[in-house]
Amino acid sequence: MADLASHGGIRSLGLGAAGRPLRGLADLWVEADWIRRLAAVAGLLLVAVAIATPIIAPFDPAGQSLLARLRPPIGFERAVPDHLLGTDELGRDVLSRCLHGLRLTLGLALFGSCIGLVLGTALGMLAGTLGRWCDTLVMGLVDIQIAVPFTLIALLLVAVFGSSLDVLVVVLGVYGWEQYARIIRAEVLKLREMPFIESARASGASGLRIAVKHILPNVASPLVVMFTLAFSNIVLLESTLSFLGLGVQPPIATLGSMVGTGRDYMPSAPWIVAAPAVCILLVTFVVQMLGDWLRDKTDVRLEER
Question: pLDDT digit string (tens) for 149-177?
């Protein structure tokens, strides 16, 4: 079983047969360099801030005060002490809108990533285990998804079905499923010829039991790595749709919509765009760094060089 853990160049993330961690979080922290540690701390802070947003946000994100519109952040002339990051064109607090936008953006990206993970994993398992017509059908859908830029597909779906939260979650969930399907299919094709799979099949185990109990645990590592790398792409996709006005509609704040509505005021009030843009940059940076970290820790080929 030790050989199976490193099959295909992917090492276990730390879940043994009894579910006990083989590598503790403390060991991962010690082995990480300073930039990975910084990314981990920043990620925890972002999650904590997103959860606590209703408590720590100083103002209602939709609350308007035209007498305080376009006020700069603290430290600049005409700044208002209560508005640390200034106000936008309608007098809404930029900090409060960034906090609520971060919360909603992370939530949409999380649900979308989970949908893509489940959909891609299920189709990849079916293609790898059943083969024949099922494999041909699934891989044909994968080729179509890869051939057409997904941004165009997302724009079409949102334009046709609307831009409600439910539609947006489904659109984000469809993104990236083909990457999961390709990875899982390739791993299943390798694993199904392994001796322990043959033994399970000879003992009378059903195809579903073999897939869930024997194959799925051995492909968990690449799934986790793929999930983290796809998460930041979904954040950027949601921000792009909101920037184009096809995402979550006002007065609900998302990071992308704040950048989109504030671009007309960049010459006179750049803080309206700068604050949400920095949040988007920070989220994508943290997730990408954590994804690279997990990949480095699970790919034995990188350690053999």
Answer: 888 888 888 888 887 888 888 888 888 88
